[in-house]
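Bug #77: duplicate submission created two jobs. Keeping one. Sequence:
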Amino acid sequence: MSESVNPEEGKPVDPAVEPVETPGNPVAEPVETQGDALSQAEDILNGVEVPAEESVAKGAGEDAAELKNDLLRLQAEYVNYRKRVERDRAVAGQMAVIGVLNSLLPVLDDVDAGRAHGDIVDGPFAAIATKLETALGTYGLEKIDATGVPFDPTVHEALIQQPSADVEVDTVSQVLRNGYKSGERVLRAAQVIVAVPE
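Kept job's structure:
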C-alpha cells in the first residue's frame, strides 16, 4: 500500500489522521461543522431565532425600519388619495344633479303657470305634473317658502315693495315666480312682492 504525500510539506500523510483533497475526492467537512449547520437549519425551520453577527443584525434592523417608514408613508398617501377621490366623486355627483334640476326649473314654471290658469287642475296632465314634482323631490329639490314669511334676501328677490299696516317687519305678500333650493344650496331665489310697514 502506497502512502499519500502532502504536496505542501513533502511528508507522508496518514489517511486516518488527515484526509487529502484530490480532484475526484474533495475533503469532507468535519462532522462537528456539518452537525452545527444541520442544527441551525432545523432551528430556522422550527421558527427558532438563530443569533446573527451584530453588524448584520444592526444593518438589517435599520433597513427594516426604513422600509416600515416607507410603507407607512405610502399607506397615508393612499388613504388621503382615496378620501380625495371619494370627495371629488361626491361633489361631481351633486353638481350633476344640480345641473339637471336647474334645467328642469323652466318646466316647473310652466306647470305652475298652467295651474294658475286652471289648465292643470285635474286629469292626466295634473297627475304627470305631480309625479314630476315628486320625482324631483327625491333628488332634494324643495320649493322655497315664500308667502307670509319674513323677507330673507338670501332666498327672496324683492321686485316690488308695498306699504302695509298689517305687518311689523318686511313680509312676503305674493310670489311672482317660485324659488327652489337643493339642501342648503339656493338654485333660484323666489321673485316676490314685499309688504313693508307703513
